[in-house]
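Entry 12.
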Amino acid sequence: MNDATILMRAYFETLHGRLEAVRDLIAADIEAMLPAAAEAFPQAGLDMEKLDAYKEAALAFLEERIETYNPVGMQFLFDRPRSKEAFQMELQLNWYDSTAEFTHLAAAVADMARPAVADADLVRLADALIARFGAFPDRSIIAAYEAAPALHKLPDYLLARAVERAL
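Predicted 3D structure (tokens):
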């Protein structure tokens, strides 16, 4: 494992800790944003039951995101055989394209990892990455939604907005 990989893991592990700590704040923010966001789709006839379903989807995505960022989740992302191919497929399967966002994040990680990163600096550098890039893949989600809003994108979008506000 090289220094860039160690720093990338520190970035995701730091995100995991932060999201765990503000899980309830993110959930409350999603719930608060949902009615106004749903107004953009008057033709959908979103009643309370449907709004609750969108909220539940966004909260499920929150749990999924926290799980993905945890150290065990990172092992599956980085250590699996063919992980590069699997990660590329995931980037392509989403309704948003996060390839450019990940490329910029990876380039910054590689730059920050030179010279070798001391263990004591990992958290500081991870914090700097979060300040600069937010939580991957939020920027891609937000940009794709704002370019072409759609009801099926709403849970991901609300989560991305709430996560970025909480960070």
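Annotation: The mean pLDDT is 89. Residues 91 and 99 are 6 Å apart (CA to CA).
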